[in-house]
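Allow me, if you will, to draw on your knowledge of protein folds for a short while. I am sending you one protein, given as its amino acid sequence and as whole-number tokens for its backbone shapes. Kindly check, if you would, that the fold set down in the tokens agrees with what the sequence suggests. The record follows directly beneath this note:
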Amino acid sequence: MNRKILFLLTVLFVGCAFVSAQETQKSNLQQRAEEEFEKGQYTNARALYKLAYENYVNKGQIKLGVECGTKAAALYYRENFYPEAFDLLRRLDQNIDANSQSLGSAAEALHYLTSKERMQIYMKIRRGASVVEQLNIMEKQASVANDEALNNDLLYNKAIYYYTFGQNAQGNAVFKEMADKLTASKEYDKVDEVYQTLIANGRKSGSTNLVAQAYRSYIVWKDSVNALKVADEIGALKSQITDDAAAIEEKDSLLTARQAMIVGLSILAVILAAVLVFGTFVLLRYIHLTRKQKKAINMANENNALKAKFISNISAQLNPTLLKLNGDIPEVKALREFSEHIQTLSELENAEQEVELEDIQISQFCESLMDQVRDKAKNSITLEVSAPKMSVKLNKAYVSHILLHLLSNALEYTPDGGKVSLEFKKRSAHKVQFLVSDTGCGIPEEKHEDVFKAFLEIKDLSEGDGLGLPICKQMALNMNGDLEISSAYTKGARFVLSLNI
């Protein structure tokens, strides 16, 4: 009977551990969202965070779902999509309420997160009364949740509100309360971080008064903390002195043991010397092998350069012969194009000079590219261009080649009634993107990298040599940019040409 009970308890413990691990492990969608966010791809990150939120909620993992949902909401109002942000936060609260029985007191902590995002939105649009209302709600939620971290976070947000709306006295009082709490628990680094954040916010908002007040408070706090640290260090030194005195007294009574230890250390020194000699031998052998490997790598690089030159020479030597053949024959035409593509790819890979740039009117440029492929469109295919009227310095030849190739491919794989679009987006002061999207069959995610690799598979040249996308990829790299396929787009295929300007 005891064995059965023990077995049941073991199974229950393992099951709980498994569920706990499931609740804390990040999903692939969330990891991808974080990666996109780190790269500055905020639109993709927002879409992935939203998908991760829905996925977590469907699995009953509400805490992780709320975490992803609030991040998606933050990315909405970051781009001034306020109705979408409020709607998502409302849905999050509904999900929390629907699972309040299983969440228990944690439900209020999750509601605190959604209320905090609403407060941030109202702060951004300068609606002070609404900010106060949200702070009052957050205070009740933090109290019910009984979470010290939430109480500290609440104090910080109160301080930021007061300073933002010019209520410096109230801000100083709240900030001092928060700093005193963290100082009492000796969390000096956290207090220092909070002060630095406040000074940075003051500088960002252009409030010299806020910066001056925060800096004065910071200096006063720093002096007091230094005094506390000195007192702590003195106490620690006194304790160390006491311990050292006891250790000395104990060691004095163990002189014989010390002598034995000296003998042991001498033996150990001999052993270490032997190990050092052996280690020196191993190190010299490792250096020798490393030099051989470096020599082999250099030889391999030279061989690759020779191979590239050889392939380029073959292409150049074949051209005169191919030009003598009848170009109307499909196979001959395919061979000519294959030879030209090899020559182009070889030249791009070996190019060392910087590409030339010129001012391009983006709207006119995109419209002209779409006009060049319009006659290739099948019946009922919709062609769309979305580009602002602005000027950007680009290499017109390379960008035109890439976009015309992508648009031609999109038209080829889009069925009747579909849509092909060309968009331009400025992601930051020094980064722009061209997006070519279609509603065709799409490209499997596992092949997103392979389509940019040359000579990956043997192909019938009359059906295409597969070098178009590798050439486009190399052109993008030569412009200090990149060409990728968007994994977040699921209605067909979307190619993203990113350029640093």
